[in-house]
Specification:
Helices cover about 40% and strands about 15% of the residues. The chain has helices at about 60-85, 110-120, 135-150, 160-165; strands spanning about 5-10, 20-25, 40-45, 90-95, 125. Strands 3-2-4-1-5 form a five-stranded parallel beta sheet, covered by helices on one side. Helix 1 crosses helix 2 (about 110-120).
């Protein structure tokens, strides 16, 4: 059975790109100035957000004007460009800079994936990133707190309790 190449999104700093298994394509206004250990095959400028949206930090307010921007080129043009990269036979990764694993972080490549799904019915996944997840510690802490609140259980610290017994006049 022939495996069809997949389309992914990611950030230029994803170490997985160094494996050489992917055709890496920018979707940015300017390419990385930092060194990368893989080949960048091109840049699809039509997917890069226009300058007037650069400072829009609200995803909901960004979405519709960005969709209108994508429609200026349209699916036939953007789809043909992407297909030309897929025709090389490797999975294609559309890259920009943001680490969307950070809590609350998003970027235009995720909004592009929404537009693509709306046009084609194909989901574009974020390429797994083997580097340490910057939001993992915080998410685990929040999950633990939620579990404690739901159970009515509060985790107490033996050392903290001992400290309070030995030094009751200190409030911490």
């Amino acid at each position: 059975m022939i495996r069809m190449p997949k389309l992914y999104t990611s950030r230029f700093s994803n170490k997985e790109l160094e494996t050489g298994k992917y055709t890496v394509v920018g979707v940015v206004r300017s390419m990385p100035r930092f060194p990368v250990k893989y080949r960048i095959s091109g840049d699809i400028i039509q997917i890069a957000p226009p300058g007037y949206l650069w400072n829009e930090n609200d995803r909901a307010r960004f979405r519709e004007p960005y969709f209108r921007h994508l429609e200026k080129s349209g699916y036939p043009v953007i789809g043909a460009i992407i297909q030309s990269y897929l025709d090389e036979g490797k999975d294609v990764v559309l890259c920009c800079y943001e680490d969307v694993r950070k809590p609350g972080e998003w970027c235009h490549r995720l909004v592009f994936a929404e537009w693509w799904y709306k046009k084609t019915g194909q989901k574009i996944e974020e390429l797994p990133d083997p580097s340490p997840d910057p939001g993992e510690k915080q998410r685990k802490k929040e999950e633990q707190k939620l579990r404690e609140e739901e159970s009515g259980y509060e985790q107490l610290s033996f050392m903290g309790d001992l400290y309070h017994m030995m030094y009751p006049h200190y409030n911490t």
